[in-house]
Design brief:
With 250 residues, the chain is an alpha+beta fold. It contains six helices and twelve strands.
Length: 250
Amino acid sequence: MSRLADVEQTLDLPPGYTLVGLRELGDAFAHGCDIAAQTGAGTLVWVRRYDLVEFAVILEPEEPLVSARRAFFAGMNATADAIANHCPPEREITFGWPDAIRFDGGLLGGARLGWPEDCSEHEIPAWLVFGVILRAADLAHVEGLQAGTSVALLSEGFEMVDNDAIIGSFARHLMTAFDRWNERGFDTIARDYLERLPRGRAGEQRAIDLNGELLVRQAGSSGPSERRSLVDALTRSNWYDPQARGPKLG
């Protein structure tokens, strides 16, 4: 495990957050899962590096794991909103079900969700960890990279991108998302998330079930909706390269 970094708190976080800084080789998501039971909700783990925007936040849900995982969608929305705050105008931020984050079609990064291994589906988990990695550095030096398959913030018009500002913006948007959820219900979170998925067939209807599964019904169909598992997709993390410990290049 990486030692804690001896850095000053430079992130502009709203009240309620506690910052844990890691050195460059640290793993925010893994460290967040390791300390979640001790540090509690609002702890934000941050790896201070120039090539990636990498952080994880600890949550303490108040509902069973089977439905608490829907917090993942609030985190995805907050991440996209934070990117949108700092990106050039008229650029498109989309999701690949459920965890990939794309910028103008290219893979920018993604998110992961962790929970206690011994928690059953119908128990309230002691914690959840939502982690994000976005590629920040230019990819011009990577030989053989196919155009449009992977992108980085610096190569997409983010002038002198401020990684710290994106994380601070995420923290504020996440609080807003949970406030909306509490006041108006999960449907507001689901709607914002679904709007960032690639468009389906004409008339296709999509929704997010209580257990986080994506429900897809084709226009005119009288049969049951197609179901796409959230848990299975999170387990695969198709956007993530564990050897490079970052977003895939291809």
